[in-house]
Amino acid sequence: MRKLLYLSIAICISFSACSDSSTETEPILCNNGYSQDGECICDEGYTGTTCGEQETPDVINISEVTVTRLPDTTDDGGSWDFSSGPDIYVEILKGDEIIWESDTYYENASDASDYDFDLDIQLTEPNEEYTINLYDYDESGSDFMGGVVRTPYNSDNEFPDNITFDADGSVAFEISASYAW
Ligand SMILES: [Ca+2]
Ligand SMILES: [Ca+2]
Protein backbone atom coordinates (compact mmCIF):
# COMPACT_ATOMS: atom_id res chain seq x y z
CA MET A 1 0.00 0.00 0.00
CA ARG A 2 2.71 2.42 0.97
CA LYS A 3 4.60 1.53 -2.14
CA LEU A 4 1.66 2.54 -4.28
CA LEU A 5 1.36 5.92 -2.59
CA TYR A 6 5.00 6.74 -3.24
CA LEU A 7 4.48 5.79 -6.83
CA SER A 8 1.58 8.17 -7.36
CA ILE A 9 3.50 11.03 -5.75
CA ALA A 10 6.41 10.33 -8.03
CA ILE A 11 4.13 10.47 -11.07
CA CYS A 12 2.73 13.80 -9.96
CA ILE A 13 6.18 15.30 -9.55
CA SER A 14 7.68 13.97 -12.73
CA PHE A 15 4.80 14.89 -14.99
CA SER A 16 3.55 17.86 -12.98
CA ALA A 17 0.10 16.56 -13.81
CA CYS A 18 -1.08 17.26 -10.29
CA SER A 19 0.53 20.66 -9.92
CA ASP A 20 -1.52 23.79 -10.12
CA SER A 21 -0.89 24.81 -13.70
CA SER A 22 -4.48 25.98 -14.18
CA THR A 23 -3.63 29.42 -12.81
CA GLU A 24 -1.99 30.21 -16.16
CA THR A 25 -4.26 31.92 -18.67
CA GLU A 26 -6.12 29.32 -20.65
CA PRO A 27 -6.12 29.98 -24.38
CA ILE A 28 -9.71 30.46 -25.53
CA LEU A 29 -11.14 29.47 -28.86
CA CYS A 30 -11.70 32.48 -31.09
CA ASN A 31 -13.89 31.80 -34.10
CA ASN A 32 -12.64 34.63 -36.30
CA GLY A 33 -9.62 36.09 -34.57
CA TYR A 34 -6.85 35.13 -32.17
CA SER A 35 -6.50 34.71 -28.43
CA GLN A 36 -4.37 37.15 -26.44
CA ASP A 37 -4.21 37.33 -22.63
CA GLY A 38 -7.42 35.38 -22.36
CA GLU A 39 -9.35 37.59 -24.76
CA CYS A 40 -10.21 37.28 -28.42
CA ILE A 41 -8.82 39.88 -30.79
CA CYS A 42 -11.31 39.75 -33.64
CA ASP A 43 -10.62 39.87 -37.38
CA GLU A 44 -12.12 42.84 -39.16
CA GLY A 45 -15.85 42.35 -39.56
CA TYR A 46 -16.31 40.14 -36.49
CA THR A 47 -17.31 40.94 -32.92
CA GLY A 48 -18.46 39.21 -29.72
CA THR A 49 -16.58 37.42 -26.92
CA THR A 50 -15.35 34.68 -29.26
CA CYS A 51 -15.58 36.75 -32.47
CA GLY A 52 -18.55 34.64 -33.52
CA GLU A 53 -20.80 37.45 -34.71
CA GLN A 54 -20.54 39.36 -37.97
CA GLU A 55 -20.57 43.13 -38.03
CA THR A 56 -22.76 44.52 -40.80
CA PRO A 57 -20.47 46.24 -43.30
CA ASP A 58 -21.05 49.90 -44.11
CA VAL A 59 -20.63 49.15 -47.80
CA ILE A 60 -20.12 46.26 -50.18
CA ASN A 61 -17.70 47.19 -52.97
CA ILE A 62 -18.48 45.64 -56.34
CA SER A 63 -15.67 45.23 -58.87
CA GLU A 64 -17.28 42.88 -61.38
CA VAL A 65 -20.65 41.50 -62.36
CA THR A 66 -20.78 38.26 -64.32
CA VAL A 67 -23.76 37.06 -66.33
CA THR A 68 -23.88 33.34 -65.58
CA ARG A 69 -27.23 32.49 -67.21
CA LEU A 70 -29.30 34.08 -69.95
CA PRO A 71 -32.21 33.01 -72.16
CA ASP A 72 -31.05 32.16 -75.68
CA THR A 73 -34.56 32.86 -76.97
CA THR A 74 -37.44 35.14 -76.08
CA ASP A 75 -40.40 33.84 -74.08
CA ASP A 76 -42.20 32.77 -77.24
CA GLY A 77 -39.14 30.93 -78.57
CA GLY A 78 -38.05 33.58 -81.06
CA SER A 79 -34.55 34.96 -81.46
CA TRP A 80 -33.63 38.20 -79.71
CA ASP A 81 -32.39 39.79 -82.90
CA PHE A 82 -33.59 39.23 -86.45
CA SER A 83 -30.88 36.73 -87.29
CA SER A 84 -28.51 36.67 -84.32
CA GLY A 85 -28.24 36.33 -80.57
CA PRO A 86 -28.80 39.08 -78.01
CA ASP A 87 -26.31 41.94 -77.47
CA ILE A 88 -26.22 41.99 -73.71
CA TYR A 89 -25.63 44.66 -71.12
CA VAL A 90 -26.36 44.94 -67.41
CA GLU A 91 -28.06 47.42 -65.10
CA ILE A 92 -27.90 47.52 -61.29
CA LEU A 93 -30.74 49.23 -59.45
CA LYS A 94 -31.65 50.20 -55.92
CA GLY A 95 -35.42 50.35 -56.00
CA ASP A 96 -36.30 52.20 -59.21
CA GLU A 97 -33.01 54.07 -59.33
CA ILE A 98 -30.31 52.88 -61.72
CA ILE A 99 -27.03 53.02 -59.79
CA TRP A 100 -24.89 51.54 -62.55
CA GLU A 101 -25.33 50.63 -66.20
CA SER A 102 -22.66 49.10 -68.45
CA ASP A 103 -21.63 51.36 -71.33
CA THR A 104 -20.47 48.36 -73.36
CA TYR A 105 -22.27 45.24 -74.52
CA TYR A 106 -21.38 41.75 -75.71
CA GLU A 107 -22.54 41.03 -79.21
CA ASN A 108 -24.51 37.86 -79.96
CA ALA A 109 -24.24 36.36 -76.48
CA SER A 110 -25.29 32.81 -75.68
CA ASP A 111 -26.03 30.84 -72.52
CA ALA A 112 -22.99 28.66 -73.27
CA SER A 113 -20.66 31.40 -71.99
CA ASP A 114 -20.29 33.69 -68.99
CA TYR A 115 -19.86 37.44 -69.52
CA ASP A 116 -17.90 39.73 -67.20
CA PHE A 117 -18.52 43.44 -66.78
CA ASP A 118 -16.00 45.50 -64.78
CA LEU A 119 -17.32 48.22 -62.55
CA ASP A 120 -16.48 50.05 -59.37
CA ILE A 121 -19.48 50.86 -57.24
CA GLN A 122 -20.55 50.60 -53.62
CA LEU A 123 -23.73 49.09 -52.30
CA THR A 124 -24.38 51.37 -49.35
CA GLU A 125 -27.39 49.52 -47.92
CA PRO A 126 -26.16 45.91 -47.60
CA ASN A 127 -29.34 44.83 -45.80
CA GLU A 128 -31.68 46.14 -48.49
CA GLU A 129 -32.69 44.74 -51.85
CA TYR A 130 -30.83 45.43 -55.07
CA THR A 131 -31.83 44.43 -58.59
CA ILE A 132 -29.63 43.31 -61.48
CA ASN A 133 -31.28 43.41 -64.90
CA LEU A 134 -30.10 42.08 -68.25
CA TYR A 135 -30.98 43.72 -71.56
CA ASP A 136 -30.54 43.04 -75.25
CA TYR A 137 -29.18 46.25 -76.72
CA ASP A 138 -30.95 47.56 -79.81
CA GLU A 139 -30.61 50.99 -81.33
CA SER A 140 -34.35 51.07 -81.77
CA GLY A 141 -34.93 50.30 -78.07
CA SER A 142 -33.42 47.64 -75.85
CA ASP A 143 -35.30 44.54 -74.79
CA PHE A 144 -35.54 43.45 -71.17
CA MET A 145 -34.27 39.86 -70.86
CA GLY A 146 -34.73 39.24 -67.13
CA GLY A 147 -33.66 40.35 -63.68
CA VAL A 148 -32.96 39.18 -60.13
CA VAL A 149 -33.73 40.97 -56.86
CA ARG A 150 -31.93 40.12 -53.62
CA THR A 151 -30.42 41.47 -50.44
CA PRO A 152 -26.66 41.14 -50.91
CA TYR A 153 -25.79 40.65 -47.23
CA ASN A 154 -26.90 38.39 -44.43
CA SER A 155 -25.50 38.14 -40.93
CA ASP A 156 -24.10 34.61 -41.23
CA ASN A 157 -22.77 34.64 -44.78
CA GLU A 158 -19.06 34.84 -43.80
CA PHE A 159 -18.47 37.68 -46.29
CA PRO A 160 -18.13 35.73 -49.55
CA ASP A 161 -15.96 37.09 -52.39
CA ASN A 162 -18.74 36.22 -54.82
CA ILE A 163 -22.41 36.92 -54.20
CA THR A 164 -24.85 35.03 -56.37
CA PHE A 165 -27.97 36.70 -57.77
CA ASP A 166 -30.02 33.69 -58.86
CA ALA A 167 -33.75 33.20 -58.30
CA ASP A 168 -33.99 30.16 -60.62
CA GLY A 169 -35.27 32.41 -63.38
CA SER A 170 -34.07 32.94 -66.93
CA VAL A 171 -31.08 35.05 -65.86
CA ALA A 172 -28.47 34.74 -63.12
CA PHE A 173 -25.49 36.82 -62.04
CA GLU A 174 -22.52 36.76 -59.73
CA ILE A 175 -20.90 39.86 -58.28
CA SER A 176 -17.31 40.16 -57.00
CA ALA A 177 -17.55 41.72 -53.57
CA SER A 178 -15.32 43.19 -50.90
CA TYR A 179 -16.45 44.71 -47.63
CA ALA A 180 -15.74 47.83 -45.61
CA TRP A 181 -16.80 48.63 -42.04
CA1 LIG B 1 -27.31 40.44 -82.03
CA1 LIG C 1 -29.85 43.35 -80.23
Identify the notable features of this structure and list them briefly:
four-stranded antiparallel β-sheet, elongated, mainly beta, Immunoglobulin-like, binds calcium ion, 2 domains, 181 residues
Give a verbal description of the structure.
The chain has 181 residues and is mostly beta strands. Helix content is 8%, strand content 40%. It has one helix and twelve strands; from the N terminus they run αββββββββββββ. The strands form four sheets. The chain has a four-stranded antiparallel sheet, with no helix packed on it. A four-stranded antiparallel sheet has the order 7-6-9-10, with no helix packed on it. It has a two-stranded antiparallel ribbon with strand order 1-2. The radius of gyration is 28 Å and the shape is elongated. The structure holds calcium ion (CA) (2 copies). Residues 81, 84-87, 107-108 line the site of one calcium ion.
Figure out the total of helices.
1
Low-confidence stretches: 7-22
Percentage of residues in strands? 35-45%
Largest sheet: 4 strands, antiparallel
Distance between the termini: 66 Å
Give a brief outline of the structure:
With 181 residues, the chain is mainly β. It contains one helix and twelve strands.
Please outline the helices and strands.
Blueprint: H1 2-15, E1 33-36, E2 39-42, E3 46-47, E4 53-54, E5 59-69, E6 88-94, E7 97-101, E8 115-123, E9 130-136, E10 143-150, E11 162-166, E12 172-180
Antiparallel strand pairs: 1-2, 3-4, 5-8, 5-12, 6-7, 6-9, 9-10, 11-12
Bound molecules: calcium ion (2 copies).
